[in-house]
Fold:
Amino acid sequence: MKKSLLAEAERFRKSIGTKNESSLHRSLKFQYTGSGGKSEIEVGEYVADGIRKDGEYIEVQTGSFGPLVKKVTKLASLGKVRIIHPVAVSKTIEVYDKDGKFLYRRKSPVHGTYWDIFNALLHAGGLTLLKDVSVEVALVEIKEKRAKDGKGAWKRGGVSILDKELSVWHESIVLSKPKDYLRFIPFKKNEEFTVSSHARKAGIKVWLSRRVLYVLTKAKIIKRTGKKGNAWVYIR
Structure:
């Protein structure tokens, strides 16, 4: 008899300990570590996802960079570090019942973009200032497997996420220096702008523009110069 999907998921979780590494994370880890590299490298009290043949440390982070600050700072004191952040431009969701029987498949209405990097950097803008740290934002398509088992988050109605898999890798951008982040500021040097004018010119939501400018101000890539009415004014 075949093992159920849930049993397989549990076996996989136990095989990787408390890290709960998804297939997406694992695929990107091996892809970026490359031929001749090594994965799961102990560095003092930390374990790096990988180290390339050329000595560059690899960290794959699908969520906020906040928990990575101390770890990456330590790794950067020893060599170059590249943080890989996958952004799903397309997501297919497969749903199973509690016994692992396939129920249905649907496409997520959410489509990510390069701007999503600022959700990850919101509590870790200082990482952009570290000399030997680069961020690679990878646009990918993923498949997410879920189970209606009553054990998941309340916002998903108790549905659990079993795994995330890499389906297609499209392209990426590398942000290795503070000036690389200026691609997200569509204004000339010393040209004044506000959250609303930035959102309008960049073609993004105001709430996202607010995050972008917050992160880049903390990272000292842009600065506030004063106010116009109730709006902060910024320049490059």
Q: What stands out?
A: The chain is about 25% helix and 35% strand. The beta strands are 38-43, 46-51, 57-60, 81-97, 102-107, 133-148, 160-175, 223-228, 231-235.
